[in-house]
Amino acid sequence: MSASQQFDDHLLPLWEEKSLTTPAFVYDEAAVTNKLELLAKVRERCGCQILYSVKALSFSSLLNTIADHVDGFSASSLFECRLAREVLGEKGSIHVTSPGLSLSAIQDIANISDYLSFNSSSQWQRCKSHVERLNCGLRVNPELSFVKDDRFDPCRDYSKLGIPLSQLATLWRQQPETFAGISGIHIHTNSESENFRELEQTINKVKNALEDFMPGLDWINLGGGYLFDNTQQLDVLCSIASGLKQQNGLDVFFEPGNAIVNQAGYLVATVIDLFDSGGKTIAVLDTTVNHLPEVFEYQYKPVVLQECADGAYSYRLAGASCLSGDLFGDYCFADKLQVGSRIIFANTGAYMLVKANMFNGINLPAIYSLNSSNELRLQKEYDYGYYRSRW
Ligand SMILES: Cc1ncc(COP(=O)(O)O)c(C=O)c1O
Questions:
Q1: What is the number of the ligand 1 atom nearest to the C-alpha of 257?
Q2: Is 117 near ligand 1, meaning CB less than 6 Å away?
Q3: Cα–Cα distance, 97 to 340 (Å, whole number)
Q4: pLDDT at 164
Q5: How far is 294 from 67, CA to CA, in rounded Å?
Q6: How far is the CA of 53 from the centre of ligand 1 (A)?
Q7: So what's the architecture of 3-28+262-389 in CATH?
Q8: Which atom of ligand 1 is nearest to the CA of 226?
């Protein structure tokens, strides 16, 4: 089988289109809209509201597409809020939570957003007089971990994310006046989970601990951290959301990021050099791990579309920067790579482009969209002027 035959048909332009300048970040519009349609069904079925978490991928033409299918956006800083409001205009709600909001940012955020979940009781006390027009909530850390890697686990020991549930329950009983003005709670506790039973356990724990608190609340934001790929799991999700709505009278929000954009993103690179080093063939690419920073940050091996596990040709794919650890990993291919061969990294839509940097002065990937007629459209290119303006 030739390498190109291993591609899904609609990705062939990435492989063949020589006018595509690499490195290129390509997002597949149909993959995003398919996910949004799935989420629209979840919304209809269980009466929840869906927000898109802007931090996953903030490219504005993509945000415009997403805006038509969601109830609003969730943001984690003033700049994300401003971007969200510019894209949404007057039509959707903006939810914000962050451990790092300064008083001056909160005043500006209050003017353009709708819901703000305070990360700590002291953040709430310090800022509450500035946010009177907002729906105010508390981010709660349910102290129930499902994520094995501490770096992704909002419920890790000594977590900085949210008020620990046990502390909140005690405070609520001893000083309920502290929370006058709070109308909702925010829970974001997971990462890339497909298992909504974990969410169910989390909610049961919160409900048990805050039984007196819940009747005074109007809304709950269940955060992101879940994928929506397993249709059987959607039944669990819908029963959770309907329960919160019907039994507790709460408006229910979800704010996925990864689930909407990750599978829609590809990084396309070109092999620019091949040489032997101690018996391994190094294939240097015109990209770098700094275009996929989570590969380096979390040391994982990205999916390469052309990889063929039992292929006869093995290469170490290396990035173009001076860092010796700028490596993607060892991969086998059915066909020999040449200088000029294309390498396509898949599942790179979330948390990559937003974190990409220009270390070594290597340009950022150009951004293309791939539409449902398989046409690639250049959306943005960076140049020396952009690099220069940072310094
Ligand atoms: C508070 C909050 N909400 C939503 C999200 C989106 O999570 P995901 O992209 O895993 O769905 C995050 C991600 O870090 C988050 O911190």
A1: 9
A2: no
A3: 45
A4: 98
A5: 26
A6: 6
A7: Beta Barrel (2.40)
A8: 11
Buried b (16+ CB within 10 A) or exposed e, 247-285: eeebbbbbbbbbbbbbbbbbbbbbbeeeeeeeeeeebbb
Would you state the structure tokens that stand for residue 271, as one six-digit string?
Answer: 């092999």
Tell me the domain boundaries of the chain.
3-28+262-389, 58-256
Distance between CA atoms of residues 29 and 370, nearest Å: 6
Q: Are 283 and 315 in contact (CB under 8 A)?
A: yes
In this predicted structure, what is the pLDDT of residue 2? 42
Tell whether ligand 1 has an atom less than 6 A from the beta carbon of residue 188: yes
Mapping DSSP to helix (H, G, I), strand (E, B) and coil, where does residue 112 land? Answer: helix
Query: Where does 58-256 sit in CATH, by number?
Result: 3.20.20.10
CA distance 354 to 361: 17
The rounded average pLDDT for each run of 10 residues, N- to C-terminus, in the chain (391 residues) is 55 79 96 95 92 97 95 98 97 96 92 97 94 94 96 96 96 91 97 95 95 86 93 89 92 97 96 98 98 93 94 98 98 96 96 96 97 91 96 92
Which residue, by CA, sits nearest to atom 10 of ligand 1? 225
Token pair of 251 as six digits: 């408006």
Q: Is ligand 1 within 6 A of the CB of residue 319?
A: no
Q: What distance in Å separates the CA atoms of residue 310 and residue 333, rounded to the nearest whole number? A: 8
The pTM score is 0.95
